[in-house]
Design goal:
Elements (H helix, E strand, L loop, with lengths): L1 E6 L12 E4 L3 E3 L5 H7 L9 E3 L5 H4 L2 H15 L5 E6 L2 H13 L4 H9 E6 L11 E7 L7 E7 L4 E6 L6 H7 L5 E5 L14 H12 L4 E5 L12 E3 L5 E3 L1
Parallel strand pairs: 3-4, 4-5, 5-6, 9-10, 10-11, 11-12
Antiparallel strand pairs: 1-2, 1-13, 2-3, 7-8, 8-9
Helix pairs in contact: 3-4
């Protein structure tokens, strides 16, 4: 499995590309406002992407989707490339996506019809087991955020967890349960700081005090969805950076 980091920024950051990544160049996770720029900067061919995973319906995770749809529509028309996407996310995803594309290009634009024909939507909850990556079983788990938000973990059949994605969240029981499986790699929201008046996101302190005591050195954490990049003095904690590749 190859995980390529496209961006590592949260909704408010100091100029970072927004949080997104691809797995095996076929699964795109999150479509933030700058997703097309991030795909091009990292030499990801849009035609190789078949599945799009959206953890929740906040703008920094979704508002780039209209431009991805538009790019696929015009590439299909100009080059004959046959695009199709399965778009996976929480309840309300399909309606939100349709509204975004209409808001971006008006209801008369032909890309609306194209999206309805060539994009399928799967709305998930914590019991869902969508097929995201060939050769891996997917488990969805609910996180503790302001709206319905879902993380995921991927495991080879019959084996321990290889990779987990923890989107925007505070510390919660479902996260604790997932970490007891000691995944090899966790890409995790680290937008929180010790000075936050009300915790909304995880922080490095949360990893030190709550996560690492569960996983020890068996799990490597890559922090993403950041306000600014950081230098870690903890051996199993790293700052995810655009262009980084993680191979499992």
């Amino acid at each position: 499995m190859n995980i390529k980091i496209l961006g590592n920024g949260g909704a408010i950051n100091d100029g970072l590309p927004y949080n997104s990544f691809v797995i095996n160049e076929t699964l795109l996770c999150e479509t933030p406002p700058d997703i097309m720029l991030s795909l091009h900067r990292n030499s990801i061919d849009l035609a190789s992407i078949h599945t799009i995973y959206i953890s929740h319906l906040h703008g920094d995770h979704l508002f780039g989707l209209p431009f991805l749809i538009l790019s696929a529509f015009f590439s299909n028309d100009e080059t004959g490339t046959e695009f199709s996407f399965e778009i996976i996310g929480p309840k309300g995803l399909e309606k939100m996506c349709e509204n975004l594309v209409v808001s971006a290009f008006t209801s008369n634009h032909p890309c609306i019809k194209w999206m309805k024909e060539f994009c399928t939507f799967l709305e998930i909850n914590e019991t869902s087991k969508p097929k995201l990556v060939n050769g891996f079983e997917t488990t969805i788990f609910k996180l503790d955020h302001l709206i319905d938000t879902y993380g995921l973990f991927l495991a080879r059949e019959g084996n321990s967890i290889d990779f987990a994605y923890v989107a925007d969240t505070r510390w919660c029981e479902s996260l604790h349960r997932m970490l007891t499986h000691k995944p090899q790699v966790v890409l995790i929201d680290l937008n929180g700081t010790d000075s936050d008046p009300v915790p909304v996101h995880l922080s490095i302190k949360d990893l030190q005090e709550k996560a690492i005591p569960i996983t020890g050195e068996k799990t490597t954490y890559f922090g993403t969805h950041l306000k600014k990049e950081f230098h870690s003095t903890i051996s199993c904690v790293r700052c995810a950076k655009p262009g980084d590749e993680i191979n499992l």
